[in-house]
Every structure is written in C-alpha cells, then in structure tokens.
C-alpha cells in the first residue's frame, strides 16, 4: 500500500506548494476521464497531505496496515532487466513439458 | 463422446433376451463395467455384431474415464480392448497416442504415428498435432520422419524451425517473416503467440502479458506461457507465480529474472513456507531481508506489524532503535481505535498528550489535533464540545472547531450566554467568515436584535453579494423597522425604510411584501380606503387563494396592533363554503411556518387563524393526501393549535398506519401536555415508537421519544421498580400495598419470574390487543370492564398480567380474577370514567 507521499512522489518534507505542484502534474497525466480510479487515488492522496494540518493528522492518526505484499514487491523488483533470448526460450519450452502437456482435447473433437 | 443409446433386444431366446436387456440398460445407464461383463457373457453364447459393438463402446468409455482420472495405463489397456472389438477407423485414436507418449511406449507410438494419414494429422487430430509439434521442437521426441511428408504439419514445422533458427542466431528480423507463413489454423498457432510474446520481453511486458493471455488453457504451450508470464511479473505477482511452479522451473525464472543470491534465498524461504506465513515469520523476514526491502520500508512494515505481533517489540527496538514515549502511546491508542474501543483509546491519547506538553509549539499543535480527534469519537455532544473548547487552548486558529462549537450551542433549545460569548469570540477571530456570520445573523434575528442582524448581514453581503439569506435578513430587518416606525407613528421615516427594503432584490414575493407594508402605512397614515386596496392587491399577488390572503393580511394587522377588519376591507368576502385546494393548503402551511420562523407570537398566529378556521376545518374533509395532512399536523403541532389538530385527525383515514399518527392523536387529545396522557395512551405510544424504530422513521421516533420523556418527568417516578422495569417509566398512584396483598405471599424467585414474563407479554402485544386478551381470559370478554379497571389503576393491569404469566407457565399462585377485581374495585369507584377514543 503506497503512502500519499509515494503516490504523489514527494518527500515527507515537501511544502504545501510542492505538494500541490506534484498533484497538478499527476492529475494532468491521469485525468479522471482516462482512469477514474487512479485519479481518485491521486486526489485522495492530495487531500490527505495538502497542508500542515492534514499532514499532521495523517502522521498522528494513520495506522498503516502491515502490507507484506508491498514488502515482496520491493524485494523482488529488480533494477536489472529480465533476460529473454533463444537459450532461455528453449529452456522454458523444455521445462514446460509435464504430465498435463499430454492431456489433449476432449473426445468431441476427435474423429476416426 | 456422446454414445448412442442402443435399440431394444432382438434375441428370441428368453434367457438371452433378459441378459441382453440387462446389458443394454446398464450400457444406457453409463454403468460400463457391468455392461462389459454382461456383453462378454452374451458373446460367449453367440457372436453377435451388435453385442460386440456395444462391448467395444463399453471399453472405449471406460478408457476415457480412466484417463480423466489420470490412470493412463489402465486407459491404454481398455482402449486396446476396444480396438480389438471395433472396426477401424477407431475412435479416440489421438487420445490413445497421447497416452502412449505419456507412458513412454515409443515402439507403439512409432507404429501408430507411422499409420497416420496427412488428413488425420492436419484435420482430425489438431490437439495431437500441437502436442507432437511441441515435443519435436523441444527434442523431447524425434518423430518427424514417421509423420506423413505430405501433411501441412510437416510444412509448418519447417517454418517454425526457420523462426527458431533465426532466434538462435540472433537474426530477430527473420523471425517474423517465418512466422507469417504459418496459417491461423496451424498446429503451431500457440507457438507463434509464445515466441512473439518472448520477443517483447523485457521491454514490453504488458504487451507480452496480453499476448500470453491468448494461449488457451488446454494448449500444450500453456505451461510455457505461464513460465514466460512469471518472467514478466514483479513482486507479489511473481512470488505467487513461483509458488505454483516446480523447483527446476523456478530456477529458470530466477536466472531469467537476474535474481541475486539474497533474493533467491528469500524466495526459497517463501516457496518452502507457501501459505504458512505467520505474522511472526513475516515480521522476522522483514528484519532479515532489510537489505532487499530497504530499511525504511522494513521499519514501516515492522512498526505496523507490531499490532499483530507485539512480541516483536524487543527485536524492533534492537534493529530500529527504541520508540519514543509518545509514539508508543500513539500506537496503543490507534490499536484500541482499530478495535472500536474509543474509550480505551482516549486513555492512551491522554498519556500521549502528557508527553507532548513538554514539546513546545509543535507539541501544542499535536495536542490540539489529538483533542479534536477525541472529540470526533465522543458519543455525547457535550463531551465533544468540551474537547473542542480545550483544543482551542492549544491551537487558537482552528476555524472548524469554532464552527462546531457554535453549531452545538445553536442546536440548544435555550440560547445560553456561552453561545453569545462564543459568537462574539468567533466573529472577532473570523470577521470575514460566511458561515460564522450566518450563525451570528440567525442568533441576532432570533433575539430580535435587528440592528445587529442588519450589521452582520451587510458584512456578509460585502463578502458574498448574492447571499440570499443575508438579503432576506436585511429585508426583514428593514420591514421590522418600518413596522416599528408605523407603530410609533414616526410616519415621515417609514417610506424611506420601505424603499430600502424594495431595493433589495430577492424575489417578487418580497416586492409584494414591501408593497403590503406600504399598504398598511397608507392605511394608518393617509387614506384608509387606498391602504386597504393596496393591502388586498399585495396579499392576493403573493398567494394563490383567498384564505392565505385573509390570514396574511389579518396577521400583519395584528403585528401592527391594528384592527384586522380595516385591513381586510379591500378583499372580496370569503364564502362560507370556500374550500382550499391542495396547493392553497400547502401554501398556507408554508406561510404559517414562515411567520413562526420570523418569531411571530403564537397568540397572534392563533388569532389570525380564527378568521379562517371554519374554512380550514371544512377543507380538511376533502380527500387530501396523507402527506399533506401530515405536514398540516406538523405545522399545527408547531404552533400548538390543538383544536385544528384534532379536526385534522378526525379526517385521517383508518388505513394510514404510520406511527406518527398515534403521536398526533395523543398529542392533540392531551393538548400537548404529556402529564395528562393516560396510561393506555402511553402504552400505545410506546408501541408506536417501536414501530417507528422498525420503519426507521427517525422523526416519529424523536417526537414520540420526547413526548414519552415528558410523560415520565410529569409522572415523577417514585422508584416502583417492577413497573419501572416493566413499562420503562413511573406510574402514578402506585399502590404497593394492594399488589403486596395479592402477590406478597409468592417466593421472590417465582415473583421475579412472573414479573419478567409480564414484560414479555407487553412487548409481544400492542396495548389494545393485550387488553382484549386479558378481558377474554378473565372478564368473559368484557373489554369495557377491563378498560375501566386498568385505565387509572395501572397496577390492576400488572396484577392481571401476573395472573396471565402464572397461567401461561402453569403455576398456581392462589390469586383469582375475583381477588384482583375485589382488590381494585374501591379504587375504581373513585376513578374518572374511562375514555378510549381510539379503540
């Protein structure tokens, strides 16, 4: 689960105007008619940290749920790109063959 | 394959015929094992082609059933039995070959494949062809030479090998032309999708994912697609993918994903634990793999995970340092709130506040926020306001808190000094705040401080020039002043005041109101006739019918201390049989509400209604809608006009069963005095309140609840516990002696048991029904006698209920109906006659 700061990509020390700037930029890239859910997320993040009071309220009363998924995402998000070439493709094809592979279509398709 | 039901037996031998019939019925019922045995027995008797065909079908169906269960070897044997009894071409031959491949019986596979025709491979067995294709290109099984050279399959295999060769030689540009040669219905269709997806990785993972989604679940390439999909995934999705894979497959993905040693180790732990990841294990993994996760995220995760795994506190402190005192209290408070224990949370917040008190300005601001947060979770508005007021000691600039405090005081029935003080304080703090100015205007208007109201309204209009509320206040203020001037005969100033009111543009109705005031001014100061005409013209302009016009003109005259007859002279006479339309009645209701809002006295309103009372009563007899009559009742209740309210209730329909009707009936009957409410009506109201609660009619619940509270207050409960618990309130004239005389001999536990039961009886039955039940059971159905007995002797009702409770439970308490009647008869003689108008 991303924090509002992460959603708007601002630091926790960002000023009101920096946060607003980041919010407007995000809204420009994600207008409500394109992806309403994303827009709502951005808007809600902005409302949560838009001024000192809301930021303090967030800091005081937000109880972040322990999100193990976020942890895994971070742990297995690689800076290095994945490798895919003919060698891996061959390995992948060979490794894919198991008992299930031999289960062919149902009888309705088969004819004499 | 759907088998064809075989026809009826044809054998002439009766025994054979029975056997054949049984075999057929088993076959048609799908009981192939039994059918097989029967057909085998039949074939021992004679070689019959039909029986053999049926037997072969039994073998085939059983082979397919075994295969579906994964018992391939059994399936093979059964299929071969089928083939022995059937004539070529054989059904499910492609399945048979796939089972042979699975059992690695290469000799038979080769024999079968060698017999396949091009048509069979290309047209009849597409799934087998796809499988063979995959096995050939992965070198799992070399059978290319065995397959018909003239088949499309062999041709397409050539294109695939061309594409693969280009891929292996890194001539990516040659792949697409080779793939293009594959037609849509090729056995290598899914191979083409797969390789295209592979070419998009890693740059266009999303496109690759959408391509891979096109490979059907039954395709031999589906698993390869799943592996490639895992390579395109990150984080949780990737881990979830890997949990489904075998260790060698995971190794390939790990290598393709370029995972480092630590990641592989972490992944290894995760895949070994699978679904058994406890809070403790997750917490420890977060600590252990901080290098992968990042210290910040790990700390954040562990911090929040402490709520589910508090034993991790020491490890947390060791890794990230001890939490400060405030943070520890904060976490505890939030944990309580998460469990909806706001009272517990309040305790921890207060501990946190104690810590923050030593942290200067920043601490003070946080204290204020915490206090406001606590206020938001208070059940009682008084407590909430108290927290808000305290919060302002730590942060004086929070407008929201001021507004909430003002709103709280505004809702109080009696305006308090505290409200005035908070209004003054708020206006001083936020002189340009529209909402606060609005509240100040309302308060000033309510106190008839028109000068102050005008001042606030002008301030508000400076900020918001189109604010209708402020305009209305200003207008009303000018007219109120004009009225005052007329009354004090300072006529030279009146016209100016009316003109100022006219300059405020709100609506035509307000213009007519100004004209009405001018009419009264002319009537008093210059020309009675002209004044009356002006009055008549303006009131008719403002309203639909004559009744509203009469009411309005009369009321305005009364407010000016004038004879209403003078003001009404210009209006046409109001016919005795005049009937108000629904629209007129609605307007009259609105008009009355408006005058109440303008603080016109109830006495003046009643006096003005005198003129039109007869017409209203007459009009009510029409078929007005329930909504209209209800809103009229609401209006009449507001001005406490009980006579009209009763008239209104006489005409409501029996089918109108909304609980609020019972409230109005009782309210009108007792002239709004809850103290005069009879016990029967109390029970009726209590019943109606329960209905209102069920129907979620909050307004009715509030009104009835308030009335019942007044009822209890008026009765001044005298601590008669049984009735308190039984009926939820005090009952007048409680005579403990008489009840003691009747039930004093009962042991305490029996007495309590019966008393509890009486509560259940009263809850289960509405009052009327309950009395009818008691009358039927104990007074030979003499309901009237029962009413007379219980109307003012509420303890008599309790006595009968105790008797019924005892009878219901089969307990002989030694008390009879006669005992109860005798006990309360003396009281009855002095009672007023019973009155149950709604029964």
Most extensive chain-chain interface: A-B, 53 and 95 residues
How many helical elements of chain B? Answer: 49
- Annotated CATH architecture of the domain at 4-75 in chain A: Orthogonal Bundle
Mean pLDDT of chain B, as a whole number?
86
**CATH C-level label of the domain at 4-75 in chain A:** Mainly Alpha
Q: Would you give the CATH topology of the domain at 4-75 in chain A? A: Helix Hairpins
Proportion of residues in β-strands of chain A: under 5%
Structural class of chain B: mainly alpha
Beta strands of chain B, count: 0
Could you give the topology of this structure?
The complex is a heterodimer of chains A (112) and B (839).
Chain A: H1 4-8, H2 16-29, H3 36-49, H4 52-61, H5 68-75, H6 86-95
Chain B: H1 14-28, H2 32-45, H3 49-68, H4 72-85, H5 93-102, H6 106-115, H7 118-124, H8 126-137, H9 152-168, H10 175-180, H11 189-200, H12 205-212, H13 222-232, H14 235-243, H15 247-256, H16 261-273, H17 279-288, H18 290-293, H19 295-305, H20 313-320, H21 325-338, H22 342-356, H23 360-376, H24 381-394, H25 399-411, H26 417-429, H27 434-446, H28 450-463, H29 468-487, H30 491-503, H31 508-525, H32 528-542, H33 546-559, H34 564-568, H35 582-597, H36 602-610, H37 613-620, H38 626-638, H39 642-650, H40 659-669, H41 679-694, H42 698-715, H43 721-727, H44 736-743, H45 748-764, H46 767-778, H47 783-791, H48 794-808, H49 817-830
Description:
The complex is a heterodimer of chains A (112) and B (839). Chain A is mostly helical and 112 residues long. Chain A has a domain at 4-75: Helix Hairpins (Orthogonal Bundle). Chain A has 6 helices and no strands. Chain A has helices at 4-8, 16-29, 36-49, 52-61, 68-75, 86-95. In chain A, helix 2 runs antiparallel to helix 3 (36-49). Chain A is elongated and about 65 Å long. By secondary structure, chain B is an all-alpha fold. Among the domains of chain B are: 15-85, Serine Threonine Protein Phosphatase 5, Tetratricopeptide repeat (Alpha Horseshoe); 96-186, no CATH class; 189-271; 657-716, no CATH class; 737-830, no CATH class. In chain B, helix 33 crosses helix 36 (602-610), helix 45 (748-764) crosses helix 48 and helix 48 (794-808) packs antiparallel against helix 49. The longest helix of chain B has 20 residues, at 49-68. Mean pLDDT of chain B is 86; it is low at 1-8, 717-734 and 827-839. Chains A and B meet through helix 4, helix 5 and helix 6 of A and helix 5, helix 8, helix 9, helix 11 and helix 13 of B.
């Amino acid at each position: 689960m991303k924090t509002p700061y992460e959603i708007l990509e601002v630091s926790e020390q960002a000023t009101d105007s920096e946060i607003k700037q980041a919010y407007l930029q995000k809204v420009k890239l994600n207008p409500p008619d394109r992806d309403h859910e994303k827009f709502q997320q951005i808007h809600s993040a902005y409302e949560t940290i838009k001024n000192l009071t809301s930021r303090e309220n967030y800091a005081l009363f937000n109880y972040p749920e322990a999100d193990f998924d976020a942890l895994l995402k971070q742990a297995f998000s690689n800076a290095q790109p994945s490798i895919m070439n003919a060698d891996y493709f061959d390995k992948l094809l060979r490794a894919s063959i198991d008992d299930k592979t031999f289960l062919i279509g149902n009888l309705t398709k088969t004819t004499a | 394959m759907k088998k064809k039901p075989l026809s009826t037996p044809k054998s002439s031998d009766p025994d054979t015929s029975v056997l054949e019939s049984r075999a057929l019925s088993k076959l048609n019922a799908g009981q192939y094992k039994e059918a097989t045995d029967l057909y085998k027995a039949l074939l021992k008797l004679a070689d019959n082609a039909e029986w053999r065909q049926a037997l072969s079908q039994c073998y085939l169906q059983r082979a397919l059933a075994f295969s579906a269960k994964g018992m391939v070897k059994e399936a093979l044997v059964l299929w071969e039995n089928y083939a022995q009894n059937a004539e070529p071409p054989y059904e499910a031959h492609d399945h048979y070959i796939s089972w042979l491949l699975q059992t690695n019986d290469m000799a038979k596979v080769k024999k079968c494949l060698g017999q396949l025709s091009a048509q069979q491979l290309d047209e009849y067995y597409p799934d087998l062809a796809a499988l063979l294709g995959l096995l050939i290109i992965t070198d799992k099984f070399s059978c290319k030479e065995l397959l018909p050279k003239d088949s499309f399959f062999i041709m397409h295999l050539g294109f695939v090998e061309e594409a693969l060769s280009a891929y292996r030689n890194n001539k990516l540009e040659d792949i697409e032309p080779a793939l293009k040669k594959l037609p849509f219905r090729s056995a290598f269709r899914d191979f083409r999708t797969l390789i295209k997806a592979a070419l998009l990785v890693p740059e266009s993972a999303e496109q690759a994912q959408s391509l891979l989604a096109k490979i059907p679940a039954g395709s031999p390439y589906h698993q390869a697609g799943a592996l490639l999909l895992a390579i395109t995934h990150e984080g949780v999705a990737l881990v979830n993918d890997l949990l489904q894979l075998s260790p060698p497959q995971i190794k390939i993905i790990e290598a393709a994903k370029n995972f480092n040693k630590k990641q592989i180790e972490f992944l290894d732990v995760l895949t070994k634990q699978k679904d058994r990841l406890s809070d403790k294990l997750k917490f420890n993994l977060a600590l252990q793999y901080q290098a992968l996760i990042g210290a910040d995220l790990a700390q954040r995760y562990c911090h929040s995970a402490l709520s589910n795994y508090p034993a991790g506190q020491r490890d947390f402190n060791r890794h990230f340092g001890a939490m400060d005192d405030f943070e520890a209290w904060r976490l505890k408070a939030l944990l309580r709130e998460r469990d909806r224990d706001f009272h517990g949370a309040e305790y921890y917040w207060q501990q946190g506040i104690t810590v923050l008190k030593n942290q200067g300005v920043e601490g003070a601001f946080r204290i204020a926020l915490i206090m406001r947060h606590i206020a938001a979770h208070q059940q009682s508005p008084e407590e909430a306001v108290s927290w808000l007021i305290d919060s302002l000691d730590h942060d004086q600039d929070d407008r929201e808190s001021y507004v909430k405090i003002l709103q709280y005081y505004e809702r109080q029935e009696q305006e308090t000094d505290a409200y005035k003080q908070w209004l003054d304080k708020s206006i001083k703090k936020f002189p340009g705040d529209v909402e606060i100015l609005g509240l100040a205007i309302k308060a000033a208007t309510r106190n008839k401080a028109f000068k102050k109201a005008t001042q606030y309204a002008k301030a508000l209009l400076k900020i918001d020039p189109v604010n209708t509320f402020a305009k209305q206040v200003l207008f009303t203020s000018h007219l109120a002043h004009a009225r005052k001037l007329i009354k004090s005969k300072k006529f030279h100033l009146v016209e100016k005041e009316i003109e100022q009111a006219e300059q405020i543009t709100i609506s035509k109705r307000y213009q007519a109101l100004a004209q009405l005031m001018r009419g009264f001014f002319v009537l008093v100061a210059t020309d009675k006739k002209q004044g009356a005409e002006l009055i008549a013209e303006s009131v008719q302009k403002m309203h639909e019918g004559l009744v509203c016009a009469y009411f309005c003109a009369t009321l305005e005259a009364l407010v000016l201390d004038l004879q209403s007859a003078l003001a009404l002279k210009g209006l046409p006479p109001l016919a005795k049989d005049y009937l108000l339309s629904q629209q007129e009645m609605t307007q009259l209701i609105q008009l009355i509400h408006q005058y109440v809002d303008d603080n016109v006295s109830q006495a003046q309103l009643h006096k003005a209604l005198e003129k039109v009372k007869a017409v209203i009563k007459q009009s009510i007899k029409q078929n007005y809608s329930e909504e209209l009559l209800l809103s009229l009742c609401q209006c009449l209740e507001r001005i406490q006009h009980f006579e009209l309210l009763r008239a209104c209730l006489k005409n409501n329909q029996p089918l109108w069963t909304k609980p609020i009707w019972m409230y109005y009936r009782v309210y009108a009957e007792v002239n709004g005095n809850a103290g005069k409410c009879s016990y029967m009506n109390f029970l009726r109201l209590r019943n109606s309140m329960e209905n209102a609660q069920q129907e979620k009619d909050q307004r009715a619940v509030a009104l009835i609840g308030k009335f019942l509270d007044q009822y209890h207050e008026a009765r001044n409960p005298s601590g008669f516990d049984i009735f308190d618990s039984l009926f939820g309130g005090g009952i007048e004239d409680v005579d403990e002696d008489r009840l003691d005389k009747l039930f004093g001999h009962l042991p305490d536990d029996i007495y309590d048991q019966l008393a509890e039961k009486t509560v259940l009886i009263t809850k289960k039955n509405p009052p009327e029904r309950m009395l009818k039940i008691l009358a039927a059971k104990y007074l030979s159905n003499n309901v009237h006698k029962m009413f007379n007995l219980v109307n003012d002797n509420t303890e008599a009702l309790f006595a009968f209920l105790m008797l019924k409770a005892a009878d219901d439970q089969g307990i002989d308490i030694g008390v009879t109906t006669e005992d109860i009647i005798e006990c309360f008869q003396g009281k009855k003689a002095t009672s007023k006659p019973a009155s149950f108008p709604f029964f």
